[in-house]
Every structure is written in C-alpha cells, then in structure tokens.
Task: inverse folding
C-alpha cells in the first residue's frame, strides 16, 4: 500500500474518486498540505435529486479544510462535476467527503462537534484554527437538523422553567420530557411567559405530538406560565414543583434579612446560613449564626422559622395529610407575622402559596418534579460561565440542545 492509498483510506475516498496527488506549501505558517482528489475519466455520477447515474456536464474546483496532518493544516481539493440529468437538469453533485455547501470535510466537522461538547466554542475554534463564527455555523447546522428529527409522539409529561441567557432580563425557557432519564430537553425558546408555551405547542405539533396527550405539566408559580398551561393542555394536571415553593420562601427570608440589616445588627455568617437547612451542611460560623438567630427577637428569625416549617409539610405522606399540615402552617404563620412592613415579602409568599394550593398539592400525587431541570440549569449556567457568555439566545439555545437534548447521531443527515 503506497502513501496515496493510506491517505485515501484516511479520507474515506471511494470510487469513482481517488487520491491523485499531494502538495505541501511550506511558504505559510503553519504549513499547508493539499490533497488532490479526482474521478476516473468518463465516470458517471449520481444525480443529487434522484440518484440516477449521469454524465458530467462540467466541473468546478472546490477546496475543503480537513483535519490537520500532523502539524500541517490539510485541505482537500477536487474538480466537482455538475450532472446533466434528463429529469432534473444540470445540478452540482454531493461529494462523499463533505456536506453540501460546506467548506469543511465531514471528519473535520465531527471533530469540531466533539470539541464543542467538551469546551467553550471560542477555545475549540482556537484549537482547530478557524473563527468561532464559522464553528458556530457548523454546530448550528447539525443541531438544527437533529432537532428537526425529534419525535415527540410519546411525550406525556413535561417540565418547563426559564434560565438566564445573559445578565439582565434575557432568558430562554427550557422544556423537558419528564419521562426521559437521559438528555430530556425537547425544546428551547427565547423569552419566558405564555408566548413560550404557545411556541412549544406549535413545535409539539410539528414533531408528532399533541397537546391533548400531555397528562402532566410541572412548572413554577408564574401566573403567565400557569394561565398558558391551563389554556393549552386541557387534559394535563399542573404541578407546582416543591423546589420553587422553597425557593420563593427562601428569597422572602433573604429580603427580610436585607431590610432588617439596614437598622439592626445581625449575627455574622447569617447571609448564607439562612439559605441552608438547619440540619444541613453548615460551617461552624453558620451554625452559630442560626443558634443566635433562634434565640433573638429579630424579624429575620420569624421569617426563617416560617420557611423551616415547609420541611414539616414536605414530609406528609398523603394529599390529605399535606392539606392538613398546610392549613395549620398558614394559620400559624399568620399568627407569627408582626405588623412590621419588613415582613411583607413573607406575607406575599404566603399569599402566593395559598393561591396556588391545589397545584402545590399535586406534588403528592405526581411522580415527577423539576429537580432534574434545576440540575440541568446548573450545567447550562456553568457552560455559559466557561464561555464567558454566548453571542445571543440562539447560540445559547444551540448549546443547551447539544448538552442535554436526545439528538442521536448528529451526522445522520449527511
């Protein structure tokens, strides 16, 4: 086997194509290796529409970037014909080593996608020696094609939540299949609120799903989400995830702490201590801060005690037990609250809790939660932090699909 045969084997070149020459340009840094591919004289080529073997009408030279050959940049160049099909006319053929319209070989794009899955796009672009814009175009092409192939005919339970796309009020809303154990993301769309649910409904219809087959939706207490979900999925039970209940009260406690800290001295290390469980993983300083808080007459202590009562509710073993505990919780919390406006965030949380009680009680009959979605949000934000942000919501959505959607073989369409 000579050198040309070895290189042709690495390229995956098959008849009628063969490697006919190579040239190393040492005048540039890094050096550039050009591999020339040609077809046998008089060869027939498949029409790109019907696949019928046709004669070549004419040729044009095309060059594609390939994987590096050792330390040298490598390019594949070939005279690519247009076929003269009796039925479909004169059309440029598709070569087996590159997808239509691309200036990179399939192997180059496969390696690029593998790198992007493991590191920020900008870093991957530096390694393979192209601009990040060109690399994004590669990634977006394959991800878009794979998303279009998603089959949602069996989708029955969904979870949805927003995640920040960048600083400020820029969000994307992520929808997941709650019955999928791995890579559950099925839809990502810019923004948050009822419009995102409408866009998901359209996406669902385009991929074989139907709103009437959705039997459960898990989300937060956003009024816009809940109203849109009730209107869109008429057969679905709506569950307010317990995580968001705890999150709402935790934020209320922190708001009380911030207000009270302006005019009262609070225990040291209290800021982070109140965000954790009383019997959770606390540093000594945090444990001391909570112990001091419990014996104080601070308004923050009242807010914290109310938040901690949620754990008692959470341990209820049935809907009836949970309803009984919630009734006592609301009554007791109202008695604890003073008239001080500093405690208004807790009052607001209690009102929201009471207003969404029926959706919250679904937690005790549902087998699903948004815990996995919250975990995924951590991965998405970590990827955003490593990349120092993404150019726009489209690139962020593309990365979310790449990380957590069931895309299968990204190169199936090539």
Result:
């Amino acid at each position: 086997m000579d050198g040309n045969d070895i290189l042709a084997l690495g390229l995956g070149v098959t008849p009628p194509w063969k490697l006919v020459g190579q040239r190393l340009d040492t005048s540039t840094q890094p050096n550039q290796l050009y591999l020339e591919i040609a077809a046998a004289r008089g060869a027939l080529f498949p029409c790109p529409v019907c696949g019928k073997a046709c004669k070549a009408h004419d040729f044009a030279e095309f060059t594609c970037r390939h994987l590096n050959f050792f330390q040298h940049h490598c390019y594949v160049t070939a005279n690519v014909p247009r076929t003269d099909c009796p039925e479909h006319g004169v059309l440029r053929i598709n070569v087996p080593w590159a997808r239509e319209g691309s200036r990179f070989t399939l192997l180059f794009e496969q390696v690029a996608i593998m790198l992007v899955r493991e590191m920020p796009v900008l870093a991957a672009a530096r390694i393979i020696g192209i601009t990040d814009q060109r690399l994004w175009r590669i990634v977006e092409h394959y991800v878009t094609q794979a998303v279009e192939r998603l089959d949602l005919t069996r989708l029955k339970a969904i979870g949805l939540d927003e995640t920040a796309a960048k600083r400020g009020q820029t969000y994307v809303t992520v929808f997941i299949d709650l019955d999928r154990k791995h890579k559950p993301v099925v839809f990502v769309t810019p923004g948050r609120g009822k419009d995102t649910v409408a866009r998901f409904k359209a996406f669902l219809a385009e991929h074989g799903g139907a709103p009437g087959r959705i039997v459960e939706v898990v989300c937060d207490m956003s009024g816009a989400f809940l109203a849109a979900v009730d209107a869109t999925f008429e057969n679905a039970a709506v569950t307010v995830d317990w995580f968001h209940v705890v999150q709402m009260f935790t934020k209320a406690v922190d708001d009380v702490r911030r207000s009270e800290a302006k005019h009262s001295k609070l225990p040291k290390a209290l800021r982070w201590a109140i965000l954790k469980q009383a019997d959770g993983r606390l540093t000594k300083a945090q444990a001391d801060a909570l112990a001091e808080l419990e014996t104080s007459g601070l308004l923050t202590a009242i807010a914290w005690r109310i938040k901690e009562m949620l754990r008692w509710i959470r341990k209820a073993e049935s809907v009836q037990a949970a309803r009984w505990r919630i009734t006592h919780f609301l009554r007791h919390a109202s008695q604890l609250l003073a008239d001080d406006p500093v405690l208004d965030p807790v009052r607001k949380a209690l009102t929201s809790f009471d207003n969404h009680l029926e959706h919250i009680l679904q937690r005790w009959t549902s087998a699903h939660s948004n815990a996995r979605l919250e975990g995924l949000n951590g991965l998405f934000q970590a990827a955003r932090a490593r990349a120092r942000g993404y150019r726009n919501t489209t690139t962020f959505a593309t990365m979310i699909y790449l990380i957590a959607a069931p895309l299968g073989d990204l190169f199936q369409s090539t």
Q: What stands out?
A: The chain has a mean pLDDT of 89. Residues 242-364 form one domain. The CA atoms of residues 256 and 344 lie 8 Å apart.
